Amino acid sequence: MLHPAHDDFNGIGAGFGFPVRFKVELANDEGFVQDVAVLGDFTQADQPNPGLEPFSVEAAGRTARFLRVTATRLALRQEDFIFALAELTALTPAGTNAALGAAVSALDSIEAPPRWQKQNLTDGWHPGSREADNAELAALRVERDALRNGALSADERATSAELDRALTATRLALAALPEPDKVFIAAVHTGSGAFAGTGANGGRPRPIHVLHRGNVQTPGREVGPGTLSCLPGLPRASTCHPTTPRGNVAPPSLVG
Fold first, then answer.
1. pLDDT tens digit string along 35-94?
2. CA-based torsion, 55, 109, 41, 101: positive or negative
3. pLDDT tens string 173-197
4. Are the C-beta atoms of 228 and 252 separated by less than 8 Å?
5. Where in the sequence is the domain holding 200, given as residue range(s)?
């Protein structure tokens, strides 16, 4: 079972990096040279992005030591292509995950722990997994709490419990607040470097110049704010300067 990843990069979200075309194979040798069984071949047509829904491939009773997923067409990220999965599970007839904690290899991998690393593929966690379904995580949290409480005095434990109650109450109060209103404002920015803004100049807009052949290093005459007279229906507050083979005109400033 292939569990898709989730990442907000480039607004992708659910199904981040899920392969467009791929195949799933089983073998008893790590090199996948002999007795390779193809569980699912999805290389002949583009597959729809499943979002966060698990993608199931039936083993039909086959057994093997190694499981391989080969992507033949990657998913578009922004200006490149990627292959990403949150989790890979191999369920036995008894319902246990034989892949949990198994070693993972890949032709290449972006190792940027803790979020991106090969070992995450079989760590038992993926977006949408419920805490109640992850007995190992629940047991680890119980063990962690026991170790923490054993290292604290009675007064420290009482203080910690009080802080936990206060934090819970604060979270509930925040969740009960109505959706905030949106306000759009215009402001004068005062910064530094390449983002200095116009605050140091009293908010006065920077001058806009006619650019000879589009070169910002050779500004021509200054142009003021207004509209383009060549467009019908707009107040003729400025003169239209069309682009010509001899030079370009920077767009006018819009002030309100």
1. 899 999 999 999 999 999 999 998 888 889 999 999 999 999 988 999 999 999 998 888
2. negative
3. 888 888 888 888 878 888 777 677 7
4. yes
5. 193-249
Q: Residue 250: pLDDT above 70?
A: no
Task: Examine the fold and report which residue of 96, 115, 133 is the final residue of a domain before the chain moves on.
Answer: 133
The answer to whether 115 and 9 are in contact (CB under 8 A) is no
Cβ-proximal residues to 209 (8 Å cutoff; 6+ apart), any chain = 219, 220, 221, 222, 223, 250
76 in a structural domain = yes
CA distances from 70 to 84, 97, 106, 126 (A): 11, 21, 10, 20
Looking at the domain assignment, is residue 149 inside a domain?
Answer: no
In contact, 122 and 2? CB cutoff 8 Å: no
Q: Specify if 165 maps to a domain.
A: no
In a domain, 105, yes or no: yes
Q: Which of 18-22, 126-130, 161-165 shows the lowest per-residue confidence on average (mean pLDDT)?
A: 126-130
Residue 158: in which H helix or E strand, if any?
Answer: helix 154-176
- From the CB of residue 41, how many other CB atoms can be counted at a distance below 10 Å? 14
Name the domain boundary from 133, 156, 174.
Answer: 133
Q: Cα–chain-centroid distance for residue 125?
A: 17
